[in-house]
Design a protein that fits this description.
Aldehyde Dehydrogenase, Chain A, domain 2; six-stranded mixed sheet; 39% helix; EC 1.2.1.16; Aldehyde Dehydrogenase, Chain A, domain 1; alpha/beta; seven-stranded mixed sheet; oxidoreductase; single chain
Length: 475
């Protein structure tokens, strides 16, 4: 690894004797390394240092911060192959997907490097001739984040990019399942000139401990969290004590809708991209499929035929499309949902193969009804339940019948229906004749219990800035 090896990729790993966090390859069960665990006093000291460093970082011209972020972006791109391999080893996703995530993660650093120079204020027409009214934007201060295991690089850069661009310092706690990618991308940030106190990666004795520190420490002014709705709710309650700013990207239950006027082949292609990326372990992946009765059989047949072509295995092996799920608990939870749906009357389109280890054969379930348990749960695995519908009104009611509102997808070639359905769906993001919607240039986020705030796009940097109003009198 050209750049990381100069500072030793193993520099952030510790021996088992040092009581580090063991990191396991989900495809093989082998321990691939150990990540350092910080004590509570070390975390508290890091927050103090971040507060001091933040003021120096914010004092630098935006152009200077932007240049360092651009260098970080370049180092991420130059190390794409090795970062991708590291991610596959600790997370399991196929190597091509992992390398794609490195590019996706780097895109946020590039985007916000550019946005650092565009945090414009306003000049406001005054109510009287002797006043001048202006607004400016200033960094909120020390920001922190808690990120998940399913996108161990992109979920960090999507938060760190805007925070650093805005002039905040940034402390992130990655998942204990995938911390090595976090330490690796931080090492590249340091090589790019970003101070170590400005960007910190920490693992504590437990997620609960670190969450408690982040949500109650008076020097931390912003918390960004990606994870479950249940945990997000707890973090918001804990953050209320000193009115911390929060951004929450939480659970999803994305409907994927195929109308009778849809291009069925295009819908199948979109369904495959949306559902089975990262073995279905994404918050925006299609979770339940609603297909009009007139095209139900055709879609199910073509969809299942495509699914049967997927190759399950170790993400480092050639041609693998589906890697392992993240843990035994995850596998058992997914299997419970499958078994429950079959008991309630659903039928697998093709025979289900039971695989060893943490691998699961992708499954398409037909004859699913809207009231089945699997329809209301976030599956987070390679399972696609398909439900019939007969009218637009029935579809809208079923699609919106969830506490979640992150992503949604539908296929139709009727422009009048497109507008009607797009406006009626209660989701923060809608893919129309498209199964892949995530990009750094568009705002990412949900409504209802899928969260608050937006990441990416021009809105992303505002999450880390305060608007200050200046009133000049006596003019």
């Amino acid at each position: 690894m050209q750049h990381i090896k100069n500072h030793s990729l193993l520099s952030f790993m510790v021996s088992e004797k040092a009581q580090g966090c063991a990191v396991t390859n989900p495809a093989t069960g082998e321990i691939i390394g150990f990540a350092p665990i910080a004590s509570e006093s070390e975390i508290l000291d890091g927050i103090e240092r971040a507060s001091v460093a933040q003021k120096e970082w914010a004092a630098q011209p935006a152009k200077v911060r932007a240049a360092k972020l651009q260098r970080w972006n370049q180092l991420l791109l130059e190390n794409k192959e090795d970062l991708g391999r590291l991610m596959t080893l600790e997370q399991g996703k196929p190597l091509a997907e992992a390398q794609g995530e490195v590019l996706y993660g780097a895109s946020f650093i590039e985007w916000f490097a550019e946005e650092a120079k565009r945090t414009y204020g306003d000049t406001i027409p005054a109510p009287s001739a002797d006043k001048r009214l202006v607004t400016i934007k200033q960094p909120i201060g020390v920001a922190c984040a808690i990120t998940p295991w399913n996108f161990p690089i992109a979920m960090i850069t999507r938060k760190a990019g805007p925070a650093l661009a805005a002039g905040c310092s940034f402390i992130v706690k990655p998942s204990e399942s995938t911390p090595l990618s976090a330490f690796a991308v931080a090492e590249l940030a340091y090589q790019a000139g970003i101070p170590r106190d400005v960007l910190q990666v920490v693992l504590g004795e437990s997620s609960r401990q670190v969450g408690g520190i982040f949500t109650t420490h008076p020097l931390i002014r912003k918390l960004s969290f990606t994870g479950s709705t249940q945990v997000g709710s707890v973090l918001m309650q804990q953050s209320a004590g000193d009115i911390k700013r929060t951004s929450m990207e939480l659970g999803g239950n994305a409907p994927f809708i195929v109308f009778d006027d849809a291009d069925i082949d295009a819908a199948v292609t979109g369904a495959m991209a949306s559902k089975f990326r990262n073995a279905g372990q994404t918050c925006v992946c299609a979770n339940r499929f609603y297909v009009h009765s007139k095209v139900y059989d055709e879609f199910v047949a073509k969809f299942d035929a495509a699914v049967q072509q997927l190759k399950v295995g170790n993400g480092l092996d050639h041609g693998v499309n589906i890697g392992p799920v993240i843990s035994e608990a995850a596998k058992q939870g997914i299997q419970t949902l499958i078994d429950g749906a079959i008991e309630q009357g659903a039928k697998p389109v093709s025979p289900i193969k039971q695989l060893d280890g943490l691998f699961m054969q992708p499954v398409v379930l037909k004859d699913v009804t809207h009231n089945m348990t699997i329809v209301s749960q976030e599956i987070f695995g390679p399972v696609a339940p398909v439900i019939r519908f007969d009218s637009d009104e029935q579809l809208i009611e079923m699609a919106n019948d969830t506490i979640y509102g992150l992503a949604s997808y539908f296929y139709s070639q009727n422009i009048h229906r497109v507008w009607k359905i797009a406006e009626a769906l209660e989701y923060g993001m809608v893919g129309i004749n498209e199964g892949m919607i995530s990009t750094e240039v568009a705002p990412f986020g949900g409504v209802k219990q899928s969260g608050i705030g937006r990441e990416g796009a021009k809105q992303g940097i505002d999450e880390y800035m305060d608007v200050k109003y200046l009133c000049f009198g006596g003019n």
